[in-house]
Amino acid sequence: MHCPRCGREESKVIDSRPSENHEAIRRRRECITCGMRFTTYERREETPLIVIKKDGARETFDRQKVMRGLLRATVKRNIPISTLDSLLDSLESELRDNGISEVTSQDIGNMVLKRLLVIDKVAYIRFASVYRDFKDVDEFSEELRSLS
């Protein structure tokens, strides 16, 4: 690690601890040459998740895109953003922990629905109505009956 002041590579680690979100290791360092103290973060290098769309197109996983869908489904439902963040964290962790680098948009939708069902049934139905693209009232009614 290069010192930001003098550019030398030699530094010593003074303190090391997990970052607030536990996604990185925070290291407090001191340059051996000039004595400047600085902080570095060490993160695991991750390969991007590729989403295979219904039409076969591929794109990188966009957490914010899923979050927008969740926010639409939970509008006026009094569900904290932190709950939705946790839902997305668990979804991403499940995919990465299983070593999956490519996933279909249908699989992501099913994973979201499984988690939403536990959080809020109205949000589940709202998300399902867009995700499953109900063709008529009968399909919608069938989904409602399956929740009872």
Task: Jot down its keywords.
alpha+beta; 148 residues; 3-stranded mixed beta sheet
Write the layout of secondary structure elements.
Blueprint: E1 11-18, E2 24-31, E3 37-43, E4 50-52, E5 58-60, H1 63-73, H2 81-97, E6 102-104, H3 105-119, H4 121-131, H5 137-147
Parallel strand pairs: 4-6
Antiparallel strand pairs: 1-2, 2-3, 4-5
Helix pairs in contact: 1-2, 1-4, 2-3, 3-4
Secondary structure tally: strands: 6
The N- and C-terminal alpha carbons lie at a distance of: 58 Å
| SS-based class | alpha+beta
Which sequence of SSEs, written as H and E, runs from N to C?
A: EEEEEHHEHHH
Overall mean pLDDT stands at 89
Helix content: 40-55%
Beta-strand content: 15-25%
Q: Any idea what the shape is?
A: elongated
**Rg from alpha-carbon coordinates:** 22 Å
Query: What is the domain total for the residues?
Result: 2
Total helices: the number is: 5
Strand order of the largest sheet: 1-2-3
Give the low-confidence spans: none
Describe what you observe in this structure.
By secondary structure, the chain is of the alpha+beta class. It folds into two domains: 11-43; 50-147. 44% of the residues lie in helices and 22% in strands. The strands form two sheets. Strands 1-2-3 form a three-stranded antiparallel β-sheet, with no helix packed on it. A three-stranded mixed β-sheet has the order 5-4-6. The mean pLDDT is 89.
